[in-house]
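Postdoc handover notes: sequence design on the structure in folder B. Input tokens:
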């Protein structure tokens, strides 16, 4: 049995996995979904809501909330609108193409509590913020 200190960190495992082009493509394809999942979970927890409670307020089913929070599915714009309303939060998604040397995505809200910047599909630049 390995000692805890001998185990690889998530970052180390991810770095190794990202060397595989197929894994990297899927990881980048789901970048926006993971960023949105993070802000939705954070806000839901802040409001002390269960997935079922959020689903009722948003007018969707609990499995829809579970899919969004898994980060494995890209939510539709309609779902984002419902979540923004139900959670009373601004959700901003900014995307610039990979060919831009210095992507500048302005996060509209100065009250943004969560900002994620990452590389998404086709090397595009992605910023997701929530306030």
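Designed sequence:
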């Amino acid at each position: 049995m390995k000692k805890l200190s001998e185990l690889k960190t998530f970052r180390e495992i991810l770095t190794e996995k990202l060397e595989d082009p197929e894994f990297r493509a899927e990881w980048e394809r789901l970048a926006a979904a993971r960023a949105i999942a993070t802000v939705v979970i954070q806000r839901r927890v802040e409001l002390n809501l269960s997935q079922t409670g959020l689903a009722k307020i948003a007018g969707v089913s609990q499995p829809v909330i579970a899919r969004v929070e898994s980060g494995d599915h890209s939510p539709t714009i309609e779902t984002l609108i419902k979540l923004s309303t139900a959670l009373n939060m601004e959700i901003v998604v900014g995307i610039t193409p990979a060919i831009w040397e210095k992507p500048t995505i302005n996060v509209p809200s100065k009250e943004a509590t969560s900002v994620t910047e990452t590389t998404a599909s086709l090397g595009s630049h992605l910023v997701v913020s929530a306030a």
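Context for whoever picks this up: Residues 33 and 71 are 5 Å apart (CA to CA). Don't rerun without checking with the PI first.
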